[in-house]
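Repro case for the chain-ordering regression, as requested:
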Amino acid sequence: MADLTETTPGWLAPEELESARARMPVLYVDAVPVRVDDRGEVTHVGLLLRIGPDGAVSRALVSGRVLHHERVRDALLRHLEKDLGPVALPRVPASPQPFTIAEYFPTHGITPYHDPRQHAVSLAYVVPVAGDCRPRQDALDFVWFTPQEAASAVVQQEMPGGHGHLLKQALAHVGYVAS
Amino acid sequence: MADLTETTPGWLAPEELESARARMPVLYVDAVPVRVDDRGEVTHVGLLLRIGPDGAVSRALVSGRVLHHERVRDALLRHLEKDLGPVALPRVPASPQPFTIAEYFPTHGITPYHDPRQHAVSLAYVVPVAGDCRPRQDALDFVWFTPQEAASAVVQQEMPGGHGHLLKQALAHVGYVAS
Amino acid sequence: MADLTETTPGWLAPEELESARARMPVLYVDAVPVRVDDRGEVTHVGLLLRIGPDGAVSRALVSGRVLHHERVRDALLRHLEKDLGPVALPRVPASPQPFTIAEYFPTHGITPYHDPRQHAVSLAYVVPVAGDCRPRQDALDFVWFTPQEAASAVVQQEMPGGHGHLLKQALAHVGYVAS
Amino acid sequence: MADLTETTPGWLAPEELESARARMPVLYVDAVPVRVDDRGEVTHVGLLLRIGPDGAVSRALVSGRVLHHERVRDALLRHLEKDLGPVALPRVPASPQPFTIAEYFPTHGITPYHDPRQHAVSLAYVVPVAGDCRPRQDALDFVWFTPQEAASAVVQQEMPGGHGHLLKQALAHVGYVAS
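-- result from build under test --
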């Protein structure tokens, strides 16, 4: 769950963000980018390849904070564009109902989700993406996997913080379950 | 809920359909065609203008039977193409989870849904439509309404059998409620 | 959306809450208390009768903040017990998926939801309540309405901030739509 | 997916059921019985132990046909009582929205769901069960498993026809994913 410290007026300064994170849950969105065929069936799932602050290589969903006075669907679009580039053509769902919520705790073991920096609650959406995806920001690459590959142990172990778990929940929601 | 008696081998002959309809619930799909903006927010709802067997003018959602050995998403696509034409470019949702189910009974008053011909249970989906819609078959016209217009008393009273009710449920699902 | 300023260590002091509210969206839960019959069908909706800081009488859903390091389902239980008393026996849903999210803005007109104090994003759940409800805290009374009564103009106009809207979305989700 | 041939007037005679099954999809309900704690969190999943027509031992969800002129929630209650006995106290969800639909085909490989007898489309619900469960009918036993046990390879391989898959989808819906 990467997010930059935005510097636009009205947003949180780094030390304020730090302080708020210690006091109240931070609202996030998680997007699972997918390719769908003409019938709407998911054929691929897209994952970001990242290098974390500790140098560890990992794969991640598109994820980030909802800002003050920002609509949830605008936050989704902003993070999708930030991570996938300006011509990814994401199709944010018509309904605001997330397929699940993910509760990230700084303490391990409360839920499958973990974020050492903060208590974050994320609204999770499956987002079909129709255009070209070009990773930006801190991502090295963006790779499409079949649902089978995405649910495999190899990919799952590269997804820390519970993102592998959330990916499997998204796959179950669209009708795919790893055997 | 119009459907033609299909004549492909393996499908029901008219008298068989009649017989089956009297004995078990018939599986349907209902699609609420919508226009969405770049953020995925619904801006318009599309309704078919129909003349019923009794000559009455009415507005309807896209609706029809699921055939033997047909996937639900294929039934959705088939009825959308049948009613909106071949270049409507419907985006059937990635998840098979309907936003609700509508239980149509031949008897009035059991549910808000009524179909004099049969007991039908319909899986209902909101389907963004990106292309040109040209009504075919038995529809006279296909008209886009704003959510406010679609939920208005004028339009609602033109939607028999509970389709006005189902439309309002769809609007509530995407965040719009008539005041 | 009432909430007390909790004084447990680690929670926000009043001035800190004020500051955080001005900088980031605050995570809320909204619960729609319902009575269901043996078949699970909603027969009644429960609403709190409140007197606001300005003396205005209003009806409200159960609503409140999610605290730092608190699970969403614990926040739901805490606010339900706070508002309905200790023997209400609420049945928090097994799935964390809310039926919708409500985005409350301090500015009017962005969404149907409004909260003059803050930008709050609320996860909304329908919660069957099996026991006795005794309003506590700042509520004068807690009254059960039929779905028809709850969706009526009389009750709707007593529900400020978009709670009437959210109630109608909840009713649509459980299959009821006002005609 | 067991169902008896009911003999009440208006229902299908065995040969008619056979005929209808060859011509149109049959509407089913699948219920995943769960135990929940006071916070609504799923602690156990209940599975029927069955001996199939071929003598094979298997575990199954509660499953069966929706009858002509029967409400979906009544079909759920009827099959839950038939399989779990009269004092199971199932809490059928307030919303008719299933967490997914399962499309059972007589042909293997179209979906993860398979029923050699017919094309069936099932509405799937998670149903908290509060009372005592006493298997009736053709079930030998009814056993509660933790989510971890239920998702294990041992239990999964005892669930034919895709019920293991559907169980995992239900677990994902309530926030549990097998690692």
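Ordering looks correct now. Chain D has one domain: 24-173.
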